[in-house]
């Protein structure tokens, strides 16, 4: 064991290291500011070191404490990579959205004075896929400072309580210099408490103050991508907007790309602000969008792609069928992508039959799906037929889909079964018929594929079939009652047997 040659040497103002003789290491932790874990860490580093100097110990201790403060920053799984893992969605299909993506790339790398780029569009038009694509490409180029994908599916991603702490954490990963500055801020008297404060104070203490002097000298842009602001609570959404506006004004090296559905409060905010650019996806020429959708459909329903899922099938979509789906999509990518999943439904096992179902639904109406409502109705008929009089079928559908929509956090099927008191096999049977709108991944956690689906199915003005429409108040009441029943059955004194 190496011997440390030191006498009454003060370390970092908090510990005194005395001269070490033989195999003994003696510490006096002056005022008790070190935690037991920190003391253990110090001992481990010293006992395992081959050679070291006192400044090295200081540096090791300081880095450890700095890292611990950063790691404990509150944050949900909301980065673009988390979005991909949960939704199983990737970048824009190759060859689509080219003009838009080039415009955004030019804006990020150019000298445009506007620091915020707002991508506005209707539900299902492809905003999140564009946001993911931009984030992924910026990440590859080393330009992505942080990203945050809001979602109503998860409580901690539907508000701004951890928005700026999540951004601060990702900025620490982006740059060692940022990590040092933000870590130092967290160790101050204001720093740690700020993580539990309102978004405005989080932004000021954890990002603006630490980075103000650093980023002034940076030449490369730093991009922050924020998706689906419309899925954030409205009051919190205003906090995000004002905070991001403040960020790009105070730190000119930062650019922000933001996607949202058209919303009055967002329009009102930007109507009072300068320094932003708004692009409305629905303004792209129809022939350009149709061309992109046709390119995507021809690839996705080609013989090569079909045989990846059904190795013995020789079917592929004809040009006439592709034209039908392009018209039926009505410029909404969500209809095109959902149609592909419906046709290639592995449980249905026959893509030709699935395509015919879509063609028949189209023929009966004699018009394309002008919006998502008719399209979602066609899909839901896989579970609840027209004029279904079987109360068990309707009740099972209402319980399974309604609970998936209204629980605060996505639940595994086993836990979902326990909550709604329905067998897991019955739940899987419902989900198998709805896999084009509800994703069931390897973790066995069902997730809504796109927010337009719950919007439709919970709106009685749009979803007019009472068997299909899910009443929000009734379903939330049923969930609450079931929770009380479970607590009454399971809660007991000293439940952990301590």
Looking at this protein, list some descriptive labels.
498 residues; alpha/beta; Rossmann fold; 4 domains; three-stranded antiparallel β-sheet; 22 helices; globular
Architecture blueprint of SSEs:
Layout: E1 9-11, E2 15-17, E3 27-28, H1 36-48, H2 54-71, H3 80-87, H4 98-109, E4 116-120, H5 127-140, E5 144-149, H6 163-174, H7 176-186, H8 191-194, H9 199-215, E6 222-227, H10 234-250, E7 254-260, H11 264-271, E8 276-280, H12 286-300, H13 303-309, H14 319-329, H15 333-343, H16 351-365, H17 372-380, H18 391-406, H19 413-420, H20 424-433, E9 438-440, E10 446-448, H21 452-457, H22 472-490
Parallel strand pairs: 4-7, 4-8, 5-6, 6-7
Antiparallel strand pairs: 1-2, 2-3, 9-10
Protein name: NACHT domain-containing protein
Keywords: Repeat
InterPro entries: NACHT_NTPase, NPHP3-like_N, P-loop_NTPase
Please characterize this protein's 3D structure.
It is a single chain. It contains 22 helices and ten strands. By secondary structure, the chain is α/β, with parallel strands linked by helices. The chain has four domains: 9-71, no CATH class; 80-283, P-loop containing nucleotide triphosphate hydrolases (Rossmann fold, 3-Layer(aba) Sandwich); 286-369; 391-488, Arc Repressor Mutant, subunit A (Orthogonal Bundle), CATH 1.10.10. It has a five-stranded parallel β-sheet with strand order 5-6-7-4-8, sandwiched between helices. A three-stranded antiparallel β-sheet has the order 1-2-3, with helices on one face. Strand 6, helix 10 (234-250) and strand 7 form a beta-alpha-beta unit. Helix 1 packs across helix 2 and helix 3 (80-87) packs across helix 5 (127-140). The longest helix has 19 residues, at 472-490. 37% of the residues are buried. Mean pLDDT is 84; it is low at 1-31.
